[in-house]
Specification:
Organism: Novosphingobium tardum
Family: Belongs to the NAD-dependent glycerol-3-phosphate dehydrogenase family.
EC number: 1.1.1.94
CATH class of the largest domain: Alpha Beta
Distance between the termini: 54 Å
Function: Catalyzes the reduction of the glycolytic intermediate dihydroxyacetone phosphate (DHAP) to sn-glycerol 3-phosphate (G3P), the key precursor for phospholipid synthesis.
Low-confidence stretches: none
Mean pLDDT: 97
Shape: globular
Strand content: 5-15%
Number of domains: 2
Helix content: 40-55%
Bound molecules: 1,4-dihydronicotinamide adenine dinucleotide, 1,3-dihydroxyacetonephosphate
Protein name: Glycerol-3-phosphate dehydrogenase [NAD(P)+]
Number of strands: 8
Structural class: alpha/beta
């Protein structure tokens, strides 16, 4: 008999989500791309590559067989955003299943949001987006948080998914705004890089708060142009995750930005990591999509310049501060 739920991707977040779902002995199948992780999870109850130091629930069963994971009626897709399309293409037919999208990003080249990638790759599946302020290590140790669970299938789908996802320390809130939930998570990663730069340059806490507010204005403008609802962007998957990711070195995106502010190059920082910093991939894609929609995103443009090594961080900040004065609201 297949498990009630599968998690595809055994990085930090997929592993933490498996831990949430596996409470009360529920069997969870966790697909790992790395063969050595299958043994480590099944035999040692550990994920030493991506979530070290956490003992995993006994009802999590790792597999290297994607087809086996895909037999579950509910499948959480937790690969990095740039690998979602290829992962879906490798799945057998998942028509009629619930696919819960957990990656935060926009696809390079095609400029597709994750929902579009999944709709194109798995046309008959019922899509949902799970997103919010969720550092994997905190979630895996049972510290409390809340997330947006946006359901394309409305309340009927929510009734299927919410009891699976909800736990004593993991509280989903219902939404039907798929695009809004996706955009918050994708954009906040780029803004977190910018916040890290501000702190790497030691520009002070006022500057960080100002950047979060002006960054949120960019998220809102872009989101509205893409068809998102303002209240979703002001919720857990938007502002909630932005505040989290912009305030802690536990964020891979923020810590990348901090290193940039301290004078390191993006290439050097990323080459030394095995974990993903989605904002580095999303920034140029987001800038292109915003330009195509006619939406001004100066902070995002500044991050693109910094990632490319186009100018020193102090110069980029000076350029942002010297822009023409304008009304706080508006484009
Ligand atoms: N770590 C966190 O706290 C959170 C992460 N997320 C999102 O979850 C997604 C996955 O991130 P993490 O689990 O943190 O990853 P990670 O940085 O912990 O691990 C990297 C992941 O990338 C996978 N990978 C590498 N090359 C691949 C390929 N060619 N095809 C498929 N998979 C490949 C690895 O197998 C591994 O699962 C990202 O979009 C991230 O933004 C969302 C919420 C929280
Ligand atoms: O999305 C996250 C928290 O909600 C994780 O943020 P980072 O990818 O920046 O570590």
């Amino acid at each position: 008999m297949s498990a009630a739920v599968a998690v595809v991707g055994a990085g930090a977040w997929g592993t933490a989500l498996a831990q949430v779902l596996a409470r009360d002995g529920r069997e969870v199948v966790l697909w790992a791309r790395e063969a050595e992780l299958v043994g480590a999870i099944n035999d040692d109850r550990r994920n030493p590559l991506f979530l070290p130091g956490i003992e995993l629930a006994p009802s999590i069963r790792a597999t290297g067989d994607l087809a086996e994971a895909a037999t579950a009626p509910v499948i959480l897709l937790v690969t990095p955003a740039q690998h979602l399309s290829a992962t879906i293409a490798a799945l057998p037919d998942v028509a009629g299943r619930d696919l819960v999208l957990c990656a935060k990003g926009i696809e390079a080249g095609t400029l597709r949001l994750m929902g579009e990638v999944a709709r194109d790759g798995a046309p008959g599946a019922a899509l949902a987006v799970l997103s919010g302020p969720t550092f994997a290590a905190e979630v895996a140790t049972g510290l409390p948080t809340a997330v947006t669970l946006a359901c394309s299938g409305g309340e009927k789908q929510w009734d299927r998914l919410a009891p699976l996802v909800a736990g004593p320390a993991f509280r989903p809130y219902y939404s039907d705004d798929i695009v809004g939930a996706e955009i918050g998570g994708a954009v906040k990663n780029v803004l977190a890089i910018a916040c890290g730069v501000v702190d790497g340059l030691q520009l002070g806490q006022n500057a960080r708060a100002a950047l979060i507010s002006r960054g949120f204005a960019e998220m809102l403008r872009f989101g509205l142009a893409m068809g998102a609802r303002a209240e979703t962007l002001a919720g857990l998957s938007g502002l909630g995750d932005l505040v989290l990711t912009c305030s802690s070195v536990a964020s891979r995106n923020y810590s990348l930005g901090k290193a940039l502010g301290e004078g390191q190059s993006a290439d050097a920082v990323l080459a030394a990591r095995n974990s993903v910093a989605e904002g580095a991939h999303t920034a140029p894609v987001l800038a292109s999509l915003a330009a195509a929609k006619g939406v001004a995103m100066p902070i995002v443009a500044a991050v693109v310049t910094l990632l490319d090594g186009g100018a020193p961080a102090r110069e980029v900040v000076a350029w942002l501060l010297a822009r023409p004065l304008r009304a706080e609201q508006g484009g």
